[in-house]
Write a structure and sequence with these properties.
The protein is of the alpha+beta class. The radius of gyration is 49 Å and the shape is flat. Keywords: Chromatin regulator, Dioxygenase, Iron, Metal-binding, Nucleus, Oxidoreductase, Repeat, Zinc, Zinc-finger.
């Protein structure tokens, strides 16, 4: 099933306990169990304030993760990969490599193809009955495309020989035939899954759940060989299998493989000619290395008969180098076979069943920081987005797509099963190794601390003394994206709890316990190949299967995303799996409650059938609890009694069976003192505790009483029973458990009698407290009687406390009634009395409105009563009214402090609390009116400040002036007043800039625009400034498009100004690449505002640029002549390699793959006369010298006209004007030089040569011979592009760069002569013209004249023609390379080539 089709299962239950429920962890889990157990897993979100600190020492925490290859985790995919490995091994033995074809743009699933063909009756029947179309349909291919024929061809070519080989039929020497189809075949690289064994626990760790067991070391994988040079030396290249057990594909795939070579040739090493010793076979190589080994003679003996005679009939296996006589083989061979030969042992390798699969350990040790960096980098690179932005749904779909793919091999690492006792728990611990704060100490004692939960009183694991790592001691898990934990159930089918300390979520899938067997059946049904040789595969935590596949077969599956700070609970025998969404840190542990005991016993029976080792003895745990029943709570005691009863009944029957067999000898054995390895059943591996059968002769063996027939064949009198308890002792323990479980009934009768006594016979409070203490001591469960007892004691304590406090008359009457209804005697009832006469007196005086002088006296009289009378409250209200009115008068009076909105609101709030009267209501109305007006003005000011709609300056000034009349301090009005001040200052600054000597600079205007936009004031000048700034930016953008190349690293100002810093040596140049505009001309930001300073700096830069260039030329020209060639050239900084070009201007070397070579022929105008080599386009300027597009002068003049219309000054505009003046000046000098008679005569001569092909006098005959001898191969090379003529050279049909190659030997020069003065003048002009970032016609004219006056550089021209002709033939490759190259090598423009010297380190073949 493809990952894109993955449908998430339904969500599991999520619980959010209150703080009260959270105090009892196991009690809360028992409460939610009826609901959560139906899903198998559930998620618990602790209260928001429960956030334990992370206690791991991050700096010292180091771990080695496991390596997980995702498509090897999924069960069906692993079956397919195993099948492909076996086919690849088979074809490797045949001397070929397996190449898997593609059909319909996806790789062909050979395993599914083989399976469907077998289901349809086999290859012969499918072919005979023409069922290949049905096979294609079953494989999911669309009908009507003749795919059935393709499948038949591929099956017959690849799979059918392998299937025939497995039937045992003889198979001729064969290879997979090549198939000429449109799809490209993919060579399969074996995964070598059987070579990677399960992860072994650390040899230095003593916390493994089981003792380390002796297991063979796994064979080395291809990665091991690449890392180990000694193993790498042992690889023998060529067809066929390599070193025994490796099964690797040879690295040198260019070595030819011939199936019909002789026996000696098949042994020949590809490196045999390197040492000059002639051919060297594998045998001779081994003999040379092992001459000192006394056992080397064994290599010459037959493995069947052990003799070494008759050497001429001794065959050497190409796979393992073993020797066999031809007559010792079955069937015997009459003669030595031709080609590669494999012995029976190597041939059997293809039929060997798959070995147990397991994860391999990584070779690198990580810290949390290094692992996190690796994990985050992997996820960000994989999804091409930041890790926190990747949706969990996308990761989930991609995970299930990857695990189901046989094409994509994605490998991740998972720090799983890290022992917290060795590396430290993520929770705080009270182990004395660290001083804890009060908060840490609280979390260290919390029942939700995973170090505490397994040893709580309600947990059965607290009765196990040993620290079982992973069950009783937590394990740590450091995950990265896609790292997974496979389908499994916990050891002994116990509960598990997982807490995610931090990091990205962990995705879980769960199956309830009722569907556990259904899941196992589905996986065994779909992948029987995995379970055939590994029945306990699901206990190895190495196999996963898509939940959608399980759901399609009726298995109920749920899912959840566990976020940081959340718990996930798995219930007994609930299968679960999942994967990590990214970098995270989790901790997990097991625990067992009373309800687990039946499941634990069923698990032992299950382990006994699978012969699986136990982590602990279930009988030992049960008996240990039964030995101390007084320490068990009632629920646990009852559950232990039921479990113990079943165990005792079963043990009685088993011992009875021994007596019936006549085994009467017995001895007591303290099994708990023996190591687990010494008390395991030799048959089912169960850890024995209550009893075991042993033999006095076979002292090393014992069996449980279920397998007494499998111990040995010794006589019965040699057998004896080893037991821990007698049956009477077991019955006594069972009785004590029963007494403990029934002690609750006696206590319940006494509680009922105490709570139901009649009036006059009530018991005392002390008797009830004794009953409560007895319930706590004997750990009775929570029940209705205990709740009634606790409620009665709580009510009694409340009545005793309330009787000493002041209360109202109604409260006093209710207290008396409550005390009379209690089922116990309370002494404070008679002490509660109330004087109603005094209350009546106070009521009469309050209704007559006493004067102020009597108010305090009445309050003092009411305070002396034991009851709070309502009349006293009314008197207190009158006092509060008087105090509040006085505070209002002081605040609003002339002598009051500053009035703010806060002060007004506080007075209003205080007035609402004061009892109401006419004077209070009047004052409240006045305050409310003033507060309303102030808030209204504040709201107006707030609207103006929010800038939703800017207002004119005059409007805001009017608002501020009117608001000043209110006697309240308003913050928004003050802020608005400040904005008005800044607006006036802005207008003043604008006037100063506009009235200056020059046009304002763009930077100044941009600063004013930014300030003006932030002001909540509407100003007309701001709009004008924005238009001016926009027009300036538009002009600069247009100029940038005109000058700058695509993705140029230079700014516009840098391109327009002379390049002084860039003319330094290449080693110094890298430091100048990120120059800013402020130091382009060596000017500060303030100097760039002065046009005169820019012009002066530009002129100085011109002179400096020319001098720096001359020095750079001198340095670069010295490179080829130095003693050692330069170590690096070109823009890439790498070593010289052909083809190389030298820049016409800076004289530095450049690779042809990094920069474009000259095209030689202009596509728009092919040359009239190809022999006029000075007209060929061979100029080359490197990207450092030609920094811009170099527009024509007419385009620049149009930009200058647009610049004149701008009312803004830009530094780029000043630089453009200077550049234009420099170009026009140079153009005038160039025209003057070209108009000289000498140059004009040279140009006329060149024009004549271009229009007319001259005959070479005196060489006609010689050239004719040369043309006859060389024209034929050249014609063949150029496809007949050269046409014959009278002298063989006079006429050519130029159709491409390749057609110029025959002309190179015939090029002549110089064709014109120039005086030394003229040549110097033209070279000076050419140098200055190449420095201009402007295209001028005079530049190319001067170059032509100088070229014609020089000798043609035939070597370089020939190299250019060959390179350009080769590129034209590979148009597709060129387009691919062009898309990958940077803009440095993709830019064109005028180019020149200095061909005076050869490139450094490169030798040219003479043309």
């Amino acid at each position: 099933m493809e990952g894109e089709d993955f449908v998430p299962p339904p969500e599991c239950p999520v619980f959010e306990p209150s703080w009260e429920e959270f105090q009892d962890p196991l009690g809360y889990i028992a409460k939610i169990r009826p609901i959560a157990e139906k899903s198998g897993i559930c998620k618990i979100r602790p209260p928001a304030d429960w956030q334990p600190p992370f206690a791991v020492e991050v700096d010292s925490f180091r771990f080695t993760p496991r390596i997980q290859r995702l498509n090897e985790l999924e069960a069906e995919t692993r079956v397919k990969l195993n099948y492909l490995d076996r086919i690849a091994k088979f074809w490797e033995i045949q001397g070929s490599s397996l190449k898997i074809p593609n059909i319909e743009r996806r790789i062909l699933d050979l395993f599914s193809l083989s399976k469907v063909v077998i289901e349809e009756g086999g290859f012969d029947i499918v072919s005979k009955e023409r069922r290949w179309a049905r096979v294609a349909q079953k494989l999911g291919y669309p009908p009507g495309k003749n795919i059935g024929s393709l499948l038949r061809s591929h099956y017959e070519r690849i799979v059918y020989p392998f299937e025939v080989f497995h039937t045992g039929a003889s198979l001729p020497q064969t290879k997979p035939k090549l198939y000429d189809g449109e799809e490209v075949h993919r060579e399969y690289k074996p995964h070598s899954i059987p070579l990677r064994q399960s992860v072994q626990p650390s040899k230095t760790s003593s916390y493994g759940r089981r003792a380390n067991r002796l297991q063979p070391d796994p064979d080395p994988t291809e990665e091991d060989i690449e890392k180990n040079p000694e193993l790498k030396k042992l690889q023998i290249y060529g067809a066929g299998p390599k070193m025994m057990g490796l099964g690797l594909v040879p690295r040198n795939k260019s070595i030819p493989k011939k199936g019909n070579t002789t026996l000696l040739q098949s042994f020949t090493s590809p490196n045999s000619g390197e040492n000059g010793d002639g051919p060297c076979t594998k045998m001779t190589m081994r003999l040379r290395r092992n001459l000192g080994n006394p056992q080397f003679v064994d290599s010459f003996v037959c493995r069947m008969c052990g003799r070494g005679d008759e050497d001429e009939k001794l065959l050497l296996c190409d796979g393992c180098d073993d020797n066999y006589h031809t007559f010792c083989l079955l069937p015997p061979l009459t003669e030595a076979p031709k080609g590669n030969w494999r012995c029976p042992k190597c041939v059997a390798e293809c039929k060997r069943p798959a070995e147990a699969f397991g994860f391999e350990q990584a070779t690198r040790e990580y810290t949390l920081q290094s692992f996190g960096e690796m994990a985050d980098t992997f996820k960000a690179d994989y999804f091409n987005m930041p890790v926190h932005m990747v949706p969990t749904e996308l990761v989930e779909r991609e995970f299930w797509r990857l695990v189901s793919s046989i094409e994509e091999d994605v490998t991740v690492e998972y720090g799983a099963d890290i022992h917290s006792k060795e590396f430290g728990s993520g929770f705080p611990m009270n182990n004395g190794m660290k001083n804890l704060s009060q908060e840490e100490a609280d979390y260290a004692r919390s029942g939700w601390n995973l170090n505490v939960m397994p040893v709580l009183e309600q947990s059965l694991l607290c009765h196990i003394n040993a620290d079982i790592s992973g069950m009783k001691v937590p394990w740590l898990y450091v995950g990265m994206v896609f790292s997974a934990f496979c389908w499994h159930i916990e050891d002994h089918w116990s509960y598990s709890i997982n807490y995610l300390h931090w990091g990205e979520p962990k995705t879980w899938y769960g199956v309830p316990s009722v569907a556990a067997e259904q899941l196992e059946e589905v996986m065994k049904k779909l992948t029987p190949e995995l379970f055939e040789f590994q029945p306990d595969l699901l206990h190895q935590l190495v196999t996963i299967m898509n939940p959608n596949i399980l759901m399609a077969h009726g298995v109920p599956v749920v899912r959840t995303n566990q976020c940081a700070g959340e718990f996930v609970i798995t219930f007994p025998r609930a299968y679960h799996s999942g994967f990590n969404q990214g970098y995270n840190f989790a901790e997990a542990v097991n625990f067992c409650t009373a309800d687990w005991l039946p499941a634990g016993r069923s698990c032992i029976e299950h382990y006994r059938r699978l012969r699986r080792y136990c982590v602990f003895s279930h009988e030992e745990l049960t008996c240990k609890m039964a030995a101390c029943p007084e320490k068990l709570d009632l629920n646990l005691a009852a559950a232990t009694h039921r479990e113990m009863f079943s165990i005792v009944q079963e043990e009685r029957e088993l011992r009875k069976g021994l007596l019936e067999r006549g085994i009467t000898e017995a001895e007591r054995e303290a099994f708990e003192l023996l190591p687990d390895d010494e008390r395991q059943c030799d048959n089912c591996k169960t850890t024995c505790f209550l009893s075991a059968l042993a033999c006095s002769n076979c002292t090393e063996r014992l069996v449980c009483l279920y397998h007494t027939q499998d111990l040995c064949n010794c006589p019965t009198d040699k057998l004896y029973l080893r037991y821990r308890y007698t049956l009477d002792e077991l019955l006594a323990m069972l009785h004590r458990l029963k007494v403990r479980a029934e002690s609750f009934d006696s206590w319940a009768n006494r509680v009922k009698e105490a709570l139901e006594q009649e009036e006059g016979n009530k018991t005392g409070v002390t008797d009830l407290e004794v009953l409560k203490a007895e319930a706590a001591e004997k750990k009775f469960p929570d029940n209705e009687l205990l709740q009634r007892l606790n409620t009665t004691l709580t009510n009694t304590q409340h009545c005793q406390q309330t009787s000493t406090e002041r209360m109202t008359l109604a409260e006093l009457k209710a207290l008396v009634e409550k005390m009379e209804n209690l089922p116990c005697v309370i002494s404070q009832l008679e002490d509660v009395q109330v004087s109603s006469l005094q209350l009546d007196l106070i009521h009469q005086r309050e209704t007559n409105a006493p004067p102020p002088e009597q108010l305090q006296a009445l309050l003092e009289q009411g305070a002396g009563l034991p009851v709070d009378a309502p009349e006293c409250e009314l008197l207190k209200g009158m006092q509060e009214q008087s105090r509040w009115l006085g505070e209002v008068r002081r605040t609003m009076g002339p002598e009051g402090s500053e009035v703010t909105l806060v002060v007004l609101r506080s007075l209003m709030e205080a007035g609402c609390i004061v009892p109401q009267s006419v004077s209070v209501e009047t004052a409240m109305a006045e305050l409310q009116e003033l507060l309303t007006i102030a808030e209204r003005w504040e709201e107006k000011a707030q609207i103006c400040l929010e800038q939703r709609q800017k207002h004119p300056l005059s409007t805001l000034e009017a608002i501020v002036n009117e608001a000043q009349l209110i006697p309240v301090k308003l913050p928004n009005i003050l802020s608005l007043r400040g904005c008005l001040s800044r607006a006036r200052a802005w207008v003043t600054d604008l006037e100063e800039i506009q009235n200056g000597e020059h046009y304002p600079c763009l930077d100044d205007l941009e600063g004013l625009v930014a300030i003006g936009r932030d002001l909540p004031v509407r100003m007309e000048e701001l709009r004008q400034l924005e238009l001016q700034v926009a027009s300036a930016h538009s002009w600069r953008d247009k100029a940038s498009k005109t000058f700058l190349k695509k993705s140029s690293q230079h700014s516009l100002l840098q391109v327009l100004c002379p390049c002084v810093e860039k003319r330094k040596a290449r080693g110094e140049e890298m430091g100048c690449l990120d120059d800013t505009d402020t130091n382009t001309l060596g000017l500060s930001a303030q100097d760039l505002r002065d046009p005169g300073a820019i012009v002066t700096a530009f002129k100085e830069g011109e002179h400096q640029e020319k001098g720096a260039l001359l020095r750079l030329q001198q340095d670069n020209l010295s490179k080829p002549g130095s003693a050692s060639p330069p170590q690096s050239v070109c823009v890439c900084g790498r070593a010289p390699r052909p083809p190389l070009l030298r820049c016409h201007l800076c004289k530095d070397w450049f690779h042809g793959g990094c920069v474009p070579f000259p095209s030689l022929l202009l596509p728009s105008a092919p040359p009239t006369n190809p022999l006029c080599w000075w007209d060929w386009d061979s100029r080359f300027l490197c990207p450092r010298c030609q920094r811009s597009r170099r527009p024509r002068l007419e385009t620049i003049l149009a930009l200058l006209v647009a610049l004149q219309r701008l009312p803004v000054r830009l530094p780029e505009g000043e630089a453009l004007q200077c550049l234009t003046e420099r170009a026009i000046t140079w153009q005038g000098r160039a025209k003057e030089a070209l108009d000289s008679p000498e140059i004009q005569g040279a140009l006329e001569k060149l024009q004549e040569l271009k229009q007319k092909q001259p005959h070479r006098e005196g060489e006609e005959e010689e050239d004719g011979k040369k043309g006859n001898s060389e024209s034929t191969p050249k014609k063949e090379m150029n496809g007949g592009t050269q046409a014959g003529c009278e002298n063989g050279i006079s006429r050519y049909n130029v159709t491409g760069v390749g057609s110029l190659l025959p002309l190179v030997p015939s090029l002549k020069g110089p064709v014109i002569e120039l005086s030394l003065t003229t040549r110097t003048q033209l070279e000076e002009l050419q140098l200055e013209g190449d420095l201009l970032e402007v295209s001028l016609d005079q530049t190319s004219t001067i170059h032509r004249v100088l070229q014609a006056a020089s000798e043609p550089q035939r070597h370089t021209l020939q190299t250019l023609i060959l390179v350009r002709a080769g590129r034209g033939g590979r148009a597709k490759d060129k387009r691919k390379r062009k898309s990958q190259r940077g803009d440095t090598g993709a830019e064109g423009g005028p180019r020149s080539q200095d061909t005076s010297e050869h490139p450094p380190g490169v030798t040219h073949t003479p043309g």
